[in-house]
Backbone:
């Protein structure tokens, strides 16, 4: 079997598990929807203010929603011994970890991208700004999954890992937040989002290369 | 051939064992025994390369295992305390996915045939969480049937198995050894494998 089909096997397995454990997947999506919807309700119909805070609110909510789903990334595999078997497989562990991160993004990142424009309407964002918002999340949410995987691997098997993973990864999410929310703000103020989006793309390229490697290192320590 | 020389294991600041030497040759198997907490599982995890080796050397056909990497992982089949099964997936899916992760393509029909051999015919489509402990162990043991690894490292494989399954596992081990394989098995009960006497290895507290 080629390396790619092993990668696909891991993605398929994690998607199947997520499909049969829908409540966990839906929790983080509903969290995103509810947190974002609370702001227009709390602030009232002040369109200028809402437009101004929209990028920040949507992006912060996306960070927190991703945070919620990070714990299940490796914890279950660690508890039932699947992670051990993955580490013993005659293929690079980084490839299998990459598959797990990709499946995590499909399950918890992609739905946020798809639902974001609907939520953006509550903040009176124009169609162009909604497009930029989707694009920034499309580049940003994989970045969140990749960075989060490092944190999830480092806190694996640690008591109170749930809080620790937030303390560890939220600071690392800052660049994604700045450039992601910045892209939408720049578009609204007419400066053009291209600069922010390319920086976000650059960060994503870096993370695709380095994050699976760092995650693998952390997992090997956790398995010792 | 697996050779272990002068192996030591340290957990925290406690030394579990030191100066351990043994070898497993083709068609031979080792029955590893010892009190609880003496380091049997730690030894097994060192043998498969999961745990780092504190002192000493583990060699596979003369080469240290840490310099072999994937080649050694291809030669070892490890079954630990955990069954490595996903509770949400069916027995068949678990088997196919487990094989795929190890780089072996296993079709649905082939997986069903293997499940029939471990006595789970008719349970292929059932999510594993509905199976009993013994049945889960059988699904985990089905890994031995598709594995092409010559060295089996089995940590308490007989736990939760009924007498029929114990006999099946002993026969499977006998067939594996007859084909030139080797195995190291921990078990607190007597294990008899037809036509093959075990080398007994007893770990004692140092």
Residues:
């Amino acid at each position: 079997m080629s390396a790619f089909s092993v990668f696909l096997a891991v993605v398929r397995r994690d998607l199947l598990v997520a499909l049969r454990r829908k409540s966990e997947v839906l929790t983080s999506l509903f969290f995103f929807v509810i947190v974002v919807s609370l702001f227009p309700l709390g602030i009232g119909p002040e369109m200028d203010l809402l437009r101004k805070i929209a990028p920040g609110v949507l992006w912060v909510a996306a960070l927190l929603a991703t945070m919620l789903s990070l714990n299940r990334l490796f914890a279950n595999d660690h508890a039932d011994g699947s992670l051990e078997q993955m580490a013993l497989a005659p293929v690079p562990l980084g490839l299998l970890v990459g598959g797990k991160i990709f499946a995590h993004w499909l399950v918890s990142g992609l739905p946020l991208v798809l639902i974001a424009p609907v939520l953006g309407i509550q903040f009176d964002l124009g169609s162009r700004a909604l497009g930029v918002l989707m694009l920034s999340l499309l580049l940003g949410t994989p970045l969140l999954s990749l960075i989060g995987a490092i944190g999830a691997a480092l806190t694996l098997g640690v008591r109170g890992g749930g809080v620790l993973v937030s303390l560890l990864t939220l600071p690392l999410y800052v660049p994604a937040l700045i450039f992601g929310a910045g892209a939408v703000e720049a578009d609204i103020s007419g400066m053009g989002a291209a600069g922010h989006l390319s920086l976000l793309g650059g960060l994503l390229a870096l993370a695709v290369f380095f994050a699976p490697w760092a995650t693998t290192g952390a997992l090997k320590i956790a398995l010792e | 051939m697996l050779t272990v020389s002068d192996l030591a294991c340290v957990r925290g600041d406690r030394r579990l064992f030191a100066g351990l030497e043994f070898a497993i040759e083709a068609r031979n198997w080792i029955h590893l025994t010892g009190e609880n907490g003496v380091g049997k599982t730690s030894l097994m995890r060192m043998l498969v390369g999961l745990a780092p080796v504190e002192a000493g050397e583990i060699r596979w056909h003369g080469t240290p295992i840490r310099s072999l990497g994937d080649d050694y992982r291809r030669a070892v089949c490890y079954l630990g305390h955990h069954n490595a099964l996903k509770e949400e997936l069916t027995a068949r899916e678990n088997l196919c996915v487990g094989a795929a992760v190890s780089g072996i393509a296993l079709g649905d029909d082939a997986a069903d045939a293997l499940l029939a051999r471990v006595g789970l015919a008719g349970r292929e489509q059932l999510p594993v969480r509905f199976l009993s402990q013994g049945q889960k162990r059988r699904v985990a043991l089905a890994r031995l049937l598709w594995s092409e690894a010559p060295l089996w490292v089995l940590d308490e494989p007989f736990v939760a198995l009924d007498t029929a399954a114990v006999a099946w596992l002993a026969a499977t081990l006998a067939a594996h050894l007859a084909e030139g394989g080797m195995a190291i098995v921990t078990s607190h009960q007597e294990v008899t494998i037809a036509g093959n006497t075990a080398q007994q290895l007893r770990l004692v507290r140092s």
Strands of chain B lie at 2-11, 14-24, 29-34, 55-60, 63-64, 76-79, 151-155, 182-186, 199-203. The two ends of chain B are 27 Å apart (CA to CA). Chain B is about 30% helix and 25% strand.
